[in-house]
Design a protein that fits this description.
It is found in: Cytoplasm, Cytoskeleton. By secondary structure, the chain is α/β, with parallel strands linked by helices. It is built from 16 helices and 40 strands.
Length: 740
């Protein structure tokens, strides 16, 4: 794995940090507190690292232990230069990041070290315990009374007998829960028993199919009488992000702790001052403390205790999540709550977007397609699957049906229409497809609905292989621009239908953006001086003339592309102007015009954000979204829909076994996710649908070491179960157990 994990336990007798053996990682005594140190590389094969400190509080731990853990966390943070992000974790309410360290699940054990209990000892078999297993993505297992009264119909239980582990699946448990439980059982076998224990599985709804295993369970649990309990509902994760985010300034200048509200969402980075500390309250679901690098030592050292005091003052639950971080070491989640965030020393990268006026200015560099294959992450960041040399087909929605567009007009999109664009390219000598759904902002709702319906029909025609991308007018992704080779022209209104006469607008103004044919588009903007800015080329088309207006900040390449677009719009001679031709000139009767947009703030780079992955599932009976921290390809569940947020694009990954309800709900959830995001996200952010097995480089590049053959060689739950073998030769003795 990419991180190094060190774990320490705070003993309740001497209040010292005692190292936990590696084979015991993931096992937590409820009567103790733990400190977990995680060091990870921010980028694969990079020396740049991030450090996280978690302190875990068991439900039965004492106040003294909790206080000692907090002190040790502060000391450890100081030893590491104050750079780590600190997390306060409470048993049963751990963060997704914490759970991600223990891929096979957490096991809560009764007691604690001070009570004479010891951590896992390898190859010890005098064990008899019952584990109640819950969860599909993040699994937890808690020791419960070894009795039938602990069972219910919806969950999974592991009867651990030392040399045998018997898995009992509740009749209402789902396949993903069963698979996770098998992986946990195998982890217990391999880490705690040196691989010598055997595993058996009983399907709770078909107990008669496993008579020998049931005989063993009965010998331990006794004869079952009465009915088992109904399922216990899973804890509801925070699937609805809290858009009510508030920032508070924390000060003790007067000798008392003063907390003053500074701002509400959407937040901006300039609200944070290096000389102070702040508390960010995410609607009570989590509390984050930010420590300025020039804040006083007292303020920095007491940040964690202040967060706990803030929770008490707000009457929030005691298990509210807490993060503490220093300036320059902010967590990805913290930065996601700000509308803009720039790292110190951040420089212009390949094709990064700048916000200029209403349309982003993009400094582009032409792609070397070989780099895309050599560097998958580059393809993902730049949102390019190839060099745009594939085959393009375009249809327009007419009378709710598909109408092929004349290839001579490819690239001309009208705001009153909806279009489907199918792009075909080859990868590893196999055809790949991208289906773009371009929706004009003035198209009727019937046409928008029809475009979605026709997209499904096209998708079915190609056996579900196309990657589907929703393109909002004016938010066209880079690859979409590239496939039209500099011929992309977007008209604000009207239609491209044959025989339809569009209203005469008189003069039309187009903003031309791009430096070569791979990144150029012309967008119609209001015909007034306020639309101009000094960084771009503009084209004014009247009935008699075509004018090219060059802003002083545009480059020679941009001017050349402006001429090329002008040739597409008109064969008339072009006039080049360097002075304004729109609006009123300053006279004694007319006040001066407002200056053209040229502020430096318009050239700021769009914030860089780390990608986030969410599981979308209704396997528990309700549609829920659960975040997956430190995700890998293994976290993509075939039974679910996954949402990948890369900030500039939203991907919906559809597993082969995902049900129709999950697929339908996931799209509306993605739309709601953008609308309710506390950073005030653009609701027009592209949403791309990807099916399992047909992932493009723009998706796979966000995953480290993507394996294209993973699903063809990995074992399903049924296959894994069949390989467990027969453990019927078990004899259970009252206090110990052994294999005959």
């Amino acid at each position: 794995r990419r991180f190094n994990l060190d774990s320490f336990i705070v003993s309740c007798d001497k209040m010292k940090m005692v190292p936990v053996p590696e084979q015991a990682y993931g096992n937590f005594f409820e009567g103790d507190c733990y400190i977990i140190l995680n060091v990870s590389n921010l980028v694969s094969n990079s020396a740049t690292q991030s450090t996280d400190i978690h302190y875990w509080i068991g439900n039965a731990s004492s106040q003294d232990e909790q206080g000692a853990a907090a002190v040790y966390v502060t000391q450890l943070d100081k030893c590491l230069g104050g750079s780590p992000v600190q997390y306060r974790e409470v048993q049963g309410c751990e963060s997704a990041k914490f759970k991600s360290y223990f891929k096979n699940g957490l096991i809560y054990k009764k007691g604690g070290v001070g009570s004479g209990f010891t951590h896992v000892e390898t190859n010890v078999y005098n064990i008899q315990r019952l584990l109640h297993v819950k969860g599909t993505k993040h699994v937890t297992a808690r020791e419960v009374e070894v009795s039938w009264s602990s069972f219910n119909l919806g969950d999974i239980f592991l009867l651990d007998l030392g040399k045998a582990v018997i898995q009992w699946n509740g009749p209402q448990s789902n396949r993903q829960e069963k698979l996770k439980a098998v992986l946990l059982a195998q982890d217990i076998r391999d880490r705690e028993r040196g691989g010598r224990a055997q595993i058996g599985v009983i399907e709770g709804g078909q107990e008669e199919a496993s008579p020998e295993l049931m005989k063993i369970m009965t010998s331990v649990l006794g004869q079952r009488t009465g009915h088992l309990k109904e399922p216990i509902p899973d804890d509801k994760p925070d699937q609805n992000q809290t858009s009510n985010v508030k920032l508070y300034h924390v000060s003790d200048a007067s000798g008392q702790l003063l907390v003053q509200e500074v701002a509400t969402s959407p937040l901006t980075q300039d609200l944070l001052s290096s000389t102070d500390c702040y508390i960010l309250d995410q609607g009570g679901s989590s509390v984050m403390v930010w420590k300025g690098k020039a804040a006083s030592d007292e303020e920095r050292h007491s940040a964690l205790s202040r967060a706990v005091g803030f929770i008490k003052a707000k009457n929030y639950p005691s298990n509210t999540k807490v993060e503490v971080m220093s300036e320059g070491g902010e967590s990805a989640m913290f930065k996601h709550l700000f509308k803009s965030w720039k790292e110190k020393g951040q420089i212009q990268g390949l094709g990064k977007t700048h916000s200029v006026g209403k349309i982003a200015k993009v400094d582009q560099v032409k792609f070397d397609v070989m780099e895309l294959h050599a560097q998958p992450k580059l393809a993902a960041q730049e949102r390019m699957v190839d060099d745009a040399s594939g085959h393009v087909q375009v249809w327009r929605i007419e009378n709710l049906e598909l109408k092929e567009v004349n290839p001579s007009t490819y690239g001309q999109f009208y705001g009153g229409d909806c279009y489907l664009v199918l792009y075909t390219y080859n990868r590893a000598n196999k055809p790949q497809y991208i289906l773009y759904m371009w929706q004009g902002r003035h198209a009727t709702q019937d046409e928008v609905t029809a475009s979605a319906y026709q997209a499904v029909n096209l998708d079915n025609k190609y056996n579900g292989a196309p990657v589907q991308v929703r393109v909002v007018m004016g938010k066209e992704p880079r690859h979409f621009l590239a496939i039209f080779k500099g011929r992309l022209i977007i008209f604000e209104g009207g239609t491209g239908r044959a025989g339809v006469v569009n209203p005469d607008p008189g003069a039309r103004l187009f903003q031309v953006r791009g430096t070569h044919e791979m990144n150029t588009k012309a967008t119609e903007v209001p015909t007034r001086a306020a639309s101009l800015n000094t960084n771009d080329v503009f084209l004014l088309k009247t009935h008699q003339n075509v004018f090219l207006w060059y802003g002083k900040g545009c480059s020679g390449d941009e001017r050349e592309m402006g001429k090329a677009v002008a040739d597409l719009l008109s064969e008339q001679d072009k006039q080049i102007v360097y002075l304004p031709v729109l609006g009123r000139r300053k006279t004694h009767r007319n006040p001066p015009k407002a200056p053209y947009a040229s502020d430096k703030r318009l050239e700021k780079e769009v914030a860089l954000h780390e990608p986030r992955l969410f599981e979308c599932s209704n396997q528990t009976g309700r549609f829920l979204m659960t975040e997956v921290a430190d995700f890998t390809q293994d976290d993509l569940d075939e039974d679910d829909v996954m949402l990948l947020d890369t900030w500039e694009e939203i991907f919906l990954w559809i597993g082969n076994s995902a049900n129709q309800y999950e697929t339908q709900e996931s799209y509306s959830s993605a739309v709601d996710y953008l609308k309710t995001h506390p950073a005030g996200r653009d609701p027009g952010t592209p949403i791309t649908t990807v099916k399992q097995g047909y992932e493009p480089p723009t998706f796979t590049g966000w995953f480290n070491a993507w394996d294209a053959h993973k699903w063809s060689v990995s074992l399903s739950y049924e296959e894994m179960k069949s390989k467990l073998g027969d453990i019927s030769q078990i004899t259970v003795v009252k206090s110990f157990n052994h294999i005959d």
